[in-house]
Write a structure and sequence with these properties.
The chain is mainly β. Helices cover about 0% and strands about 55% of the residues. The protein has a four-stranded antiparallel β-sheet, with no helix packed on it. The protein has a four-stranded antiparallel β-sheet with strand order 5-6-7-8, with no helix packed on it. The chain has a four-stranded antiparallel β-sheet with strand order 9-10-11-12, with no helix packed on it. Strand 13 and strand 14 (about 140-145) form a beta hairpin.
Length: about 250
């Protein structure tokens, strides 16, 4: 049990090494919890992701004191800010190993977590939403406003593939292993492999898929007012009858 300050309501959590960082939406205060279960306040940051021993956080004020929202790499051992870089307030950060990908409505840069420098950047106006981004071991898959998924190399941002038209308009994406799952407007869940091929199509219903996750070997989709699960054991086995969860 950890005693937090009165009124603190955690809205996000990031694990950095052996530390847990809880963020509270709106006021820029985070709590760092160590193995003694002591909660230490970390003012002025909103935790977003972990990159090695650094916490990547949203802060106010960019490099050189520039006004506006920014991303920062914070070393938690002494709360030292190692780098800052300007970033829109709505940016979503995904991390994989030593790579950071920052998704916004207009661009998708990859940052070096050591110093915040840009490794590569893809400019676009077609990203559906900043959080519809999936990182795999060697690629980044993103959902566009046209409902199609586009894939880029994780190391250099080079285009890999675009999902074929006519598969259904995608609404949400998530990842499992080397596969990207796409929930569509028409109530199906598409499983896209490493080369963009559709390895399986699951008919989840007639209503749009609002969310899709993989839990304990099952593909679980939110379809209308229903929560529907498919498969068992491992998520890539033959499709079984749907199970409607309470």
């Amino acid at each position: 049990r950890v005693r937090l300050p009165v009124g603190f309501e955690g809205s996000s959590a990031v694990v950095v090494g052996e530390l847990l960082v809880l963020g509270q939406e709106g006021d820029g205060i985070a709590m760092v919890i160590d193995d003694t279960r002591a909660a230490v306040p970390l003012p002025g940051v909103q935790p977003l992701a972990a990159a090695g021993e650094l916490l990547v956080a949203r802060v106010e004020g960019g490099a050189g004191g520039a006004p506006g929202p920014a991303l920062a790499g914070v070393r938690l051992s002494d709360t030292q800010v190692m780098w800052r870089t300007a970033s829109p307030a709505g940016a979503v950060v995904r991390s994989a190993g030593d790579t950071l990908v920052v998704a916004t409505a207009g661009s998708q840069p990859s940052l070096d977590p050591a110093d915040g420098s840009v490794r590569w950047e893809v400019d676009h106006g077609w990203l559906a939403a900043a959080d519809e981004v999936v990182l795999h071991a060697d690629r980044v898959d993103v959902l566009g406003v046209d409902g199609r998924v586009r894939s880029f190399g994780l190391l250099d941002g080079s285009p890999r593939w675009t999902s074929p038209a006519g598969l259904g308009v995608g609404r949400v994406v998530t990842g499992a292993g080397d596969v990207t799952l796409v929930g569509t407007e028409g109530g199906s869940v598409l499983l896209l492999g490493a080369t963009g091929d559709v390895t399986r199509t699951i008919d989840a219903g007639r209503d749009p898929v609002e969310d899709v996750v993989v839990v304990d070997g099952m593909v679980v989709a939110t379809v209308g007012a229903d929560l529907v699960a498919f498969g068992s054991g491992t998520w890539f086995v033959e499709q079984q009858d749907a199970v409607r969860l309470p």
